[in-house]
Design a protein that fits this description.
Chain lengths: 462, 462
């Protein structure tokens, strides 16, 4: 899909006139990379790219897009997994990457104000300098930007204890699809004045507006973090152990699971696992007292032992911890390299259903002659189940497996997306989870905010 | 205001026909108590009362109300402080109190499903039996109901560490003002499928719909809770100490403050404070290790000592803890009894501004010859500043003080309501906090959900 040349030219001409200093380009070489993200859903280069450096830029782009009916796709670091930043309708990619300043770090008020182009890792690094903590830790934290985190309501391993992006966004400067600039939310950790539009806008996947300033809640940083690698003979034992850990009173900040395929993918990367390990759990606890955290970690390790875990390894220092997490972060690319292609899901099932879900996902793959690898945030039921394949010839069978994964997930009382979003990737499955009246209300809400349907069209909704 | 008799009769007649078993009454004696709540904003008896026992009842009431243009005010325990449950437009009070069943307590999935009439305290009692925790603890927890907590996004002392009602609502069965029944949200702790309507609906003060089923997130219950009463010579020292505690790395679950007027009000109730105490802080920490929690509490007490606190008292057992909190809960009624009348605010200022806010609130009262007492959740900046008065003769001066409190709060970067809601009480101040375009968008959102404006009209918006 694309916008007729004359229509686009008229839009760009008025935009250039109205936005001095706005970087507008139509050079194909520059546009090319903006046609892809990490969803692997294809290549959809925009017809033009604008790089905003101010809220006024964003507002003008959207106001004129609404006037000219030109599709706008907001873009950050393009690390998304659901295709949210793919300009599938053509038109203009609106990059926020140059709005990359941390505007305020306020230790007394436990908050930070950032522009959308600030990388997620920068936020926690700045907080750490003041003994504070920004917990959300998507796997792409070093590359992804806060605008994208807000759009997708990004999660990560620590969501188990600390929640997701939405739990840390206090306020937003928000540009509506019409170009109207609003300040929603607040600077205090508590507040109920008016409707919670922050709650509505976070996770709206770039379809209800664009964040140009983000006020984040920070919390005191735990002084002690202890991490254990707990091997199991097989993933079923591991999954059952996890369920039982969470009802034992312990509250780890992460309970990550890697199945035997994930382990095979990262073999040789130095994860200290015994040869008979068919799965591992990475359990991490935090607090302010060394002994207390260690004894809680021991309790978790013992609980796992009672479910048949093998000898656990507790990271002895920060370097060992960092190595464990580096290997964990390497799982996704390593799985891709096994057969060349993969598609990664992020379904969530009620915690008690994790063992059954993993077994049924594997069986669903096997029925199509495909391998399903499962790893991820099993502690909160958020499973990154990956369907591995070699080439597009296998795609119809991959599709069949994905459909089964979604059906099983919903049958178990889960949700089709825990943190990646619907975007383009899961549009076709949304009707399985949300009722027709609920989808209708949400579509109407989209049009309520974006009457001309110019902002990220074709995402979530057709 | 009231609905013409013929119009009301036509509505009630059709309602009775359509809802077998629905308890409908127009008996004045029964209606009278439904004309008041704990806001002290006046008496507005409804013209009829319906007591729903099912979602179908609620749906039919709203569908027919929309058809007949009859105002419906949802009512729980009427413990609200902002007038949210007052039928100011006349019409019908819709009581949810008889939908009072806990439908599911699921320890494996860490969740609970309740009807709106379940009392808040019941939720945590049921969770505690399984070693789980429902943290929100509004002062009225023993009386207020979850439907009201969802409508107002209720908070409480523990919000400092654990957040508010909204942070624990995973899903809702929600009846739109048109009568349409929707299931929004999910049963998993994580999920991003579609827009976050749970975020939008929680805290909508009974203006966007009615919750008929609430799915709540539970968390592991800390095994150890330690509480200290820390006296100070004056409230300024106390407030400054609080700010510094929160930047020291400690993360208490409550940091409550009582100023000298609040202390005077509860004199004789047995709070163990020295004679020269002009303020007290109640600091409570939790965890799973006795020594760790005690040593963190000691660190908080020492930090306060460095800011001039007097001899602190650490509760030695559960009975002493309960006693401290019983006295804390008694502050609000005790303050009323000082002069006979009071109006309680719930403004929030950035934590670092708490000392300045308290001093300026007092001065604002003094300028009008009135006493302003401040107590509450100072740890997160949420201050219950109370203007005390004797009779309505003083009301104009009370109003003048309230207006100054709001102006000071906003000047300090705060919000006019932390947990009570706007309702009727703060409608006139909302324009001071929310911009005209933002108010306009929210008003339009109200009409988007409630085209006939029959659900709780006159609340938040005129």
């Amino acid at each position: 899909m694309s916008v007729p040349k004359a229509q686009l030219e008229a839009f760009l001409a008025e935009l250039r006139g109205a936005s001095p200093g706005l970087d507008v380009t139509t050079a194909e070489a520059t546009l090319a990379p903006f046609g892809q993200d990490e969803s692997g859903l294809g290549t959809f280069p925009p017809q033009a790219l604008v790089r905003a450096v101010s809220t006024a830029h964003v507002s003008t782009v959207l106001r004129l897009a609404t006037k000219h009916g030109v599709p706008i796709t907001p873009v950050g670091a393009r690390t998304g997994k659901s295709g949210g930043s793919l300009p599938i309708a053509g038109g203009v990619a609106l990059s926020l990457e140059r709005m990359d300043r941390i505007l305020e770090v306020n230790a007394d008020d436990l908050l930070m104000v950032v522009q959308p182009g600030v990388r997620t890792a920068q936020v926690d690094e700045a907080a750490e300098k003041l003994g504070l903590f920004y917990p959300p830790d998507p796997n792409s934290a070093d590359a992804c930007t806060m605008g994208g985190n807000v759009a997708e309501n990004a999660g990560g391993p620590r969501a188990l204890k600390y929640g997701v992006t939405r739990d840390y966004v206090l306020g937003l400067e928000w540009v509506m699809p019409t170009g109207e600039v609003l300040r929603v939310g607040r600077r205090t950790h508590k507040g109920v004045a008016g409707y919670d539009l922050v709650g509505l806008f976070v996770g709206s996947e770039g379809t209800l507006g664009v964040a140009t300033e983000i006020t984040l809640k920070l919390i005191p940083r735990p002084r002690v973090v202890k991490t254990a690698l707990i091997p199991f003979r097989n993933v079923s034992d591991a999954a059952r152990a996890l369920s039982s850990v969470l009802t034992s009173g312990a509250w780890p900040r992460t309970l990550e699971l890697l199945d035997e395929v994930a382990l095979k993918a990262i073999a040789g990367q130095g994860l200290p696992t015994p040869p008979d390990a068919g799965a591992v759990v990475i359990a991490e606890l935090d607090g302010n007292q060394d002994d207390a955290v260690l004894s809680e970690l021991s309790a978790v390790v013992e609980r796992c032992a009672s479910w048949g875990s093998l000898e656990a390894v507790v990271a002895q220092d920060e370097a060992q911890r960092a190595r464990l997490w580096a290997v964990r972060k390497a799982v996704s690319p390593a799985l891709r390299s096994l057969l060349g292609q993969k598609i990664s899901e992020d379904v969530v099932v009620p915690r008690s259903k994790v063992p059954e879900a993993i077994e049924r996902f594997k069986a669903a793959g096997a029925r199509q002659g495909l391998v399903v690898a499962t790893y991820g945030h099993a502690g909160d039921g958020n499973l990154h189940s990956n369907v591995l394949y070699r080439s597009m010839d296998e795609w119809p069978r991959v599709e069949a497996v994905l459909a089964e994964l979604m059906a099983i997930t919903l049958e178990l009382g889960g949700t089709i997306s825990g943190e990646h979003g619907i975007g383009l990737a899961k549009k076709r499955f949304l009707a399985l989870e949300l009722s027709a009246p609920l989808r209708e209300l949400q579509r109407r809400l989209k049009v309520f905010c974006d009457p001309s349907v110019v902002l990220n069209p074709g995402k979530i909704w057709d």
